[in-house]
């Protein structure tokens, strides 16, 4: 019972931090993120699609594969991707007309919020799925390092967004991604997450 309550609390707090970081700090300055959230942000900037719904739609084929071939990965990440996506779209209605902070501060704080949110969830083996899940499945089937695959997917999302953002926004996005990775690494290190397959999720 206590473990179940702890799971729910960590899931909600982690997803809340991620959704607030994206809506209150990333979107205000047209910033990108790595992985599947980056793709969701690109779709939002170009076509005004909801970020969370885009994440869910893109994740569907990945989760179909996971259901048939990597069932444990499916269960560990399903709640994370659904709750985080729904929260991202819910809090989008509260995005302030005027940014709360300056661009550099927003990139750092937004990135740290995403990293802390992902990190505390990862301590309970909750993943936000997406490209992280795909990387885990590829790694399980091949000899490729899952960390390298995750970085590759993250870079691919940022590179895909280059045509729609300015040079300044790319620099700020890079800072935000670094801040996310830093916070996630610190949280998971402090929490002792050191299993060979438990790499910090990058919100892909």
Automatic annotation (TrEMBL):
Topology of the protein relative to the lipid bilayer: Multi-pass membrane protein
Regions that span the bilayer: 7-32, 44-66, 73-92, 104-124, 144-164, 170-190
Coiled coil: none
Subcellular location: Cell membrane
Chief place of localization: membrane
Keywords linked to the UniProt accession: Cell membrane, Membrane, Transmembrane, Transmembrane helix
Pfam families: YitT_membrane
Protein name from the UniProt record: Uncharacterized membrane-anchored protein YitT (DUF2179 family)
Organism from which the protein derives: Shouchella xiaoxiensis
Lineage of origin: Bacteria, Bacillati, Bacillota, Bacilli, Bacillales
């Amino acid at each position: 019972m206590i473990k179940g309550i702890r799971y729910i609390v960590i899931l909600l707090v982690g997803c809340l931090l991620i959704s607030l970081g994206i809506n209150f700090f990333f979107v205000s300055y047209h910033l990108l993120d790595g992985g599947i959230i980056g793709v969701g942000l690109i779709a939002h900037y170009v076509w005004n699609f909801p970020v969370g719904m885009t994440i869910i739609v893109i994740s569907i084929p990945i989760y179909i594969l996971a259901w048939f071939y990597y069932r444990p990965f499916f269960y560990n990440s399903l709640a994370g991707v659904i709750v985080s996506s729904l929260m991202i779209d819910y809090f989008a209605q509260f995005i302030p007309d005027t940014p709360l902070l300056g661009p550099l501060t927003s990139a750092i704080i937004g990135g740290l919020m995403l990293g802390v949110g992902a990190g505390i969830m990862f301590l309970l083996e909750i993943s936000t799925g997406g490209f992280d899940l795909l990387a885990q499945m590829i790694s399980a089937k091949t000899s490729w390092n899952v960390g390298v695959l995750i970085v590759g997917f993250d870079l691919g999302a940022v590179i895909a967004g280059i045509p729609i953002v300015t040079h300044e926004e790319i620099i700020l996005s890079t800072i935000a991604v670094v801040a996310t990775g830093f916070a996630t690494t610190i949280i998971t290190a402090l929490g002792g997450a050191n299993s060979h397959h438990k790499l910090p999720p990058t919100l892909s």
